């Protein structure tokens, strides 16, 4: 049943998310978990805290803040995130450009 549903409702964005490298998927999980608290945008610095928590809970070594910022730029280039402007990367604002449900479905976020 689950296979039939996934084939029927799978979108190109779901395929894109599933083909992302592991750390970029963790970044998206972090965004979804952060936005479930009612937020619609955040900063890279705040996202970094959630990202590190998820990495620790899954025993995956986190990347540094500069690499996280680069991953956010890549996700922005792919149209998944929208990044604001700031001289300090920690203060750059970001928002989701895709539906949280697509990310949750693609990555089975609990």
UniProtKB/TrEMBL annotation:
<dbReference type="Pfam" id="PF09079">
    <property type="entry name" value="WHD_Cdc6"/>
</dbReference>
<protein>
    <submittedName>
        <fullName>Putative winged helix-turn-helix DNA-binding domain-containing protein</fullName>
    </submittedName>
</protein>
<dbReference type="InterPro" id="IPR015163">
    <property type="entry name" value="Cdc6_C"/>
</dbReference>
<comment type="similarity">
    <text>Belongs to the CDC6/cdc18 family.</text>
</comment>
<keyword id="KW-0238">DNA-binding</keyword>
<keyword id="KW-0235">DNA replication</keyword>
<dbReference type="InterPro" id="IPR036390">
    <property type="entry name" value="WH_DNA-bd_sf"/>
</dbReference>
<dbReference type="GO" id="GO:0003677">
    <property type="term" value="F:DNA binding"/>
</dbReference>
<dbReference type="InterPro" id="IPR050311">
    <property type="entry name" value="ORC1/CDC6"/>
</dbReference>
<dbReference type="GO" id="GO:0006260">
    <property type="term" value="P:DNA replication"/>
</dbReference>
<dbReference type="InterPro" id="IPR036388">
    <property type="entry name" value="WH-like_DNA-bd_sf"/>
</dbReference>
<feature type="domain" description="Cdc6 C-terminal">
    <location>
        <begin position="28"/>
        <end position="107"/>
    </location>
</feature>
